[in-house]
Write a structure and sequence with these properties.
Number of strands: 4
Largest sheet: 4 strands, antiparallel
Shape: globular
Strand order of the largest sheet: 2-3-1-4
Helix content: 25-40%
Structural class: alpha+beta
């Protein structure tokens, strides 16, 4: 199984707009071959835990195989999603992992 942790930081005040676009794209991603999990997360309120901050969200993904993940990245809906958000994103770090 392939795990992906994508840390996306929006330009100030643009996180909600990106998340709206993300949520609209989720059904297409869930329909892809090999998609096990795909969703956006944000900091919880309260507690002494480290925070990503108000402009950042983290996408947590699980895929059956690396080939499935590569197909996901090359899909038309992901290219359209990237184009729609390119001027809204400040930074993006994608970590791809596998079970130890």
């Amino acid at each position: 199984m392939i795990h992906v942790i994508a840390i996306i930081t929006a330009k100030p005040g643009k996180r909600d707009e990106i998340l709206k676009n993300f949520k609209a794209n989720v059904p297409a991603v869930h329909a892809e071959k090999g998609c096990i999990e795909y969703g956006a997360t944000v900091d919880t309120d309260g507690g002494p835990f480290a925070k990503f901050g108000p402009d950042t969200f983290v996408v947590i993904e699980k895929w059956d195989s690396m080939d499935d993940l590569k197909a996901h990245g090359a899909s038309a809906h992901m290219k359209a999603y990237g184009e729609k958000n390119k001027d809204l994103v400040a930074t993006r770090a994608v970590h791809v992992l596998q079970n130890a």
